[in-house]
Amino acid sequence: MLEAMRWHATGRSSMSDLEKVVYIADYSEPDREYPLAGFVRELSFVSLDEAVFVVSWATILYLEEKHAKIHSQTRECYTYYKKKLGSQRYSELEAQVTSYLENHLKK
After folding, report:
1. Which of 13, 81, 95, 104 has the most CB atoms lying inside 10 A of its own CB?
2. Reduced to 3 states, what is the DSSP secondary structure of residue 67?
3. pTM for the full model?
4. Which overall architecture, per CATH, does domain 2-105 show?
5. DSSP string spanning 12-55?
6. Nearest CA to 21 among 54, 42, 55, 48?
């Protein structure tokens, strides 16, 4: 439980299921208005690893856009789960995320 609390905002590589759930929940709780929060909530019921990857990816993209510092653990989390998913699944998720954003940002 302590590790889940410690890494809930940055994520890290090789998280336990509890750490993944807390990390995902912090990003996607119902009051969050992040563009991908709904997508992540849905995805988390299918695959915790995929949801963790999308959260870390979205976090990095957001921070890069703001020219803000990105925690090294967030980068490691992104790299670890991207590799774990493999290039084919990464490409599929990229297409799903793009489609989701196009459909939900228009509303």
Report:
1. 81
2. coil
3. 0.87
4. Orthogonal Bundle (1.10)
5. -TT--HHHHHHHHHHHH-TT---TTHHHHHHHHTT-HHHHHHHH
6. 48
Question: What rounded mean pLDDT belongs to the chain?
Answer: 89
9, pLDDT greater than 90: no
Stated length of the chain: 107
Question: Hey, where are the domains in the chain?
Answer: 2-105
Contact call for residues 94 and 29 (beta carbons, < 8 A):
no
Amino acid at 85: L
Encoded tokens for 69: 């510092």
Cα separation, 56 vs 11, in Å, equals 7
